[in-house]
Amino acid sequence: MQKSRFFYFGNTNMNKDFIFLLVIGGLYSLGLFLSNTFVNIYLWKQSGDYVTIAVYNLAIYIFQPITFIIAGRLAKKVDRVIVLRLGVTFLSLFFLNVLLIGDKASYFNFLLGGLLGIGYGFYWLAFNVLTFEITEPDTRDFFNGFLGVLQSFSGMVGPLLAGFIIARMEANIGYTIIFTISFIMFICAVVISFFLKPRKAEGDFYFRRVLTERSHNKNWKRIQNAHIFQGLREGIFAFIIAIWVFLITQSEFALGMFNLVFSGLSLVFYFIGTKFIKPSMRKKSILLGSLILYFAIALIIFDISYAQLLIYAVFIGIAYPIIMIPYVSLTYDVIGKAWKAKEYRVEYIVVRELFVNIGRVTSISVFLLAITFLQAEIIIPYLLAFFGAGHIFIYLFVKKIYLESNMEKQVFIKDQFTNEKNR
């Protein structure tokens, strides 16, 4: 047993909290990837219209940043583990409500989206802070790397398994099964959180001061603007592509295969990118990945088939790691060089999340307005072409960011995989 442990973990010094946090992260990833991809399809099959799906996603992105602010304040007033527990509890409530509401879920789309957004906000704020506190500089790379493997594995296996179960079951029995499994996983995560050592809170919450830091720090302002454009793409791409795959194939299993192709290639290129993308190559890498990501849209907006969507999955699976590895690194380098970053890292994480969701809410709001006055099938390709350029604008902002040499890198792989759900 000892030899087996050494083979997998080497000389990494891991305490119980380290392992428990990894287990919670793994349960979160598998539970979410197993079901969340198919919630949009579940709502679509009940309503058959884009408005229901858009409002559901809009609620997520409205409540997520609001909860991040509340969670950030709580993280400096109460135990951080309590904040994490709140997040997992709300995620459990989300799946419990989906199960209880059943075939009426589309009528409660805003409520369900709000619950999920609140769960995201509490969970990710606490998880980010606990990662800082539980890991050490010499164990952080291993933690993030191993968590990234768990998340990518979940991204490949979860949707494919869920799609297989749904396709083999009659009516909505398959959906009930996967939502139940996800609910149980989040309940297990709540139970495990009670084994984490309490983390005492300290300090005040200076959200407004960090928000206005953009007036004093040009690099912080540029990275905030970049995150808005990141959100502009993620907003409508989070649900449109999944719905298109289902509409063309009428098969949840086909959607699972789409995610398998995307996540599998992402995993491979995250490993390749981590090894070969050096700090001096960051901006060029972001530009290259952004161009691949944008031109991949041409595969699906003029003429569309399942084969074209799979090819699109190949391109975005390659492009996302090329963008996100240097982009996330650069973001945390900017934060690391910002005013009182050590004391106010919680506030910087909260503000970053706020600007991403400003972009997401904006794109979905424009989408809702557009399909109100124009036929959805006609206007959606134009919206994808317009908002799909978001990552190119990321490059236009980050190319003006200049930092001193010998920067301390904090690459959060979990953030990279989390954002991949927005395609």
Overall average residue pLDDT? 85
Sequence of secondary-structure elements:
HHHHHHHHHHHHHHHHH
How many strand segments? 0
Strand content: under 5%
Largest sheet: none
Secondary-structure-derived class: mainly alpha
Brief descriptors of the model:
423 residues; mainly alpha; 79% helix; globular
Question: Can you walk through the features of this model?
Answer:
By secondary structure, the protein is mainly alpha-helical. It is 79% helix and 0% strand. The chain is built from 17 helices and no strands. The chain has helices at residues 2-9, 16-47, 50-75, 80-101, 109-134, 137-168, 173-193, 207-211, 218-249, 252-276, 282-295, 298-301, 306-336, 345-373, 376-387, 390-398, 413-419. The longest helix has 32 residues, at 16-47. The radius of gyration is 20 Å and the shape is globular.
Q: Secondary-structure blueprint of this entry?
A:
Elements (H helix, E strand, L loop, with lengths): L1 H8 L6 H32 L2 H26 L4 H22 L7 H26 L2 H32 L4 H21 L13 H5 L6 H32 L2 H25 L5 H14 L2 H4 L4 H31 L8 H29 L2 H12 L2 H9 L14 H7 L4
In brief:
The chain has 423 residues and is mostly helical.
